[in-house]
Amino acid sequence: MQKTIETPETKLPECLFPGDARVRILLGKQAPPAAGENIRKSHFVYCLYTEGRYLLFHTMTRELLVLPPQYIDYFEDGRLFPSSVLEQEPAAKLYEEYFLVPENSPESQTYLELKAILVLKEELPRDITQYVILPTTACNARCFYCFEQGMQYITMTDDTVEDTLRFIRQHKPEDKKQIHIHWFGGEPMCAPGIIDRICAGLTESGIEFNAEMTSNGSLFTEETAKKAAEVWKISKIQITLDGMDEEYARRKRYPKEMKGPFRIVIRNMHLLLAAGIHVMVRLNVDEDNPEEIIRTIDFLKDEFTGEEKQTLRAYAHSIFGIPGEGPESCPLSAGSDALEARVQEINDYIRLQGLMIWDPDTLFSLKTHYCMVTAPECNVLIDASGQLFACDAMTEDMRYGNVKTGFDPDARSRVTETCKVRKECETCVFLPECTEFDRCPSCIPYDDCCRQEKRKLDSELLEAIHVSN
Length: 469
Known about the structure:
This protein is an alpha/beta fold. It has 3 domains: 14-105, no CATH class; 128-410, Aldolase class I (TIM Barrel), CATH 3.20.20.70; 421-468, no CATH class. The protein contains 13 helices and 16 strands. It has helices at residues 21-27, 91-96, 107-122, 158-170, 192-204, 222-230, 245-252, 261-274, 290-303, 337-352, 361-364, 409-416, 446-468; strands at residues 14-17, 39-41, 45-50, 53-58, 64-67, 100-102, 130-133, 179-183, 209-215, 234-241, 278-285, 312-318, 379-382, 387-389, 399-402, 406-407. The strands form 3 sheets. It has a 10-stranded mixed beta sheet with strand order 12-11-10-9-8-7-13-14-15-16. It has a 4-stranded antiparallel beta sheet with strand order 1-5-4-3, covered by helices on one side. It starts with 13 loop residues before the first strand and ends with a helix.
């Protein structure tokens, strides 16, 4: 049996952030362990040593503590302590707050039950309120990393547009709640007439809506930027940049008649911001362009100032592949640890330049939904041929009907049924950070996802420390 930890003085951990109030209320204080049961650290405790301090973050309760160093032994992997340690501080406090738990505590089950209650309390609408719509899969760019390479170009026919409107009308919220549309593609601006028709049809039907768009930003004009804000009711657009002038043109591979595409997109970003639309810039990073991305960040910081800087944000994301003109240009493999670490450094740099605002809710609130499939009652994707999907990855096993005939009940129940936690994830510290949806078509190997979550969480915690200071 392990000895209790003896210390020259008793000092309680310092609470930097109390975590998610909803979780704290539902869990309450942890019940005492059964007689004779040993105590261990929670699977959901993440420890980070920085600036001479031990940070303890509970990924389920979202509480952040600074632990006096003399108590770090409590959080050694595989160590057990007798329940008698709870007779003294700080073990008693750490146990109350779920940082220490009984040896046989079913933590993954507790997490799932807690999340299920939070989802119920959200009272999700029974009707569909969130749509991803692809008016076309056509695009005027030929990005080497595009996940839609090889996909047949399809644009909605007039009949598909009318069927889409009919489907939306049939599933409109009973309480007249607004619906949200995410225009996706392809490049949505290759089919502005379809967006016009769907928006007009919704307005004619008295259906209130708001929208966002993912676009390369190259096809806007002053007129369409204003229409996007006023008629299409778009409040946010994501636009991808891969570098400055020459590098951007090389990677996007627009038609040769488009001269200076980088400057065209920057001009259009100014137009969109002037129209009142928030612009989110996604900076794609691979092994070859990190320094080019840094140049682009510096450019954005100087180019967009004053009021514009309040509604322009940026973030970096990794891509994988080889730039080229032929079949070899398609994405090849998962990113290296070195690349992902570089992406995290770039995101930290973006934050320092004031182009990314840290939102504490992203760290200190427990997620209840991670993607479309985790809220199937109110989310659907409609592709350019009118097929319905439960997921924006649009794999065939995620298809469950079409706008003409509606949902296929068997297919829909199959893709939306409750999933079990993968065995290898049951004791993972990052389980509450992740999705337990075990049929996810974008699921990456277990070891890779852990490394990715670690980098992301380290960055968030360091930002939290910076803010708390």
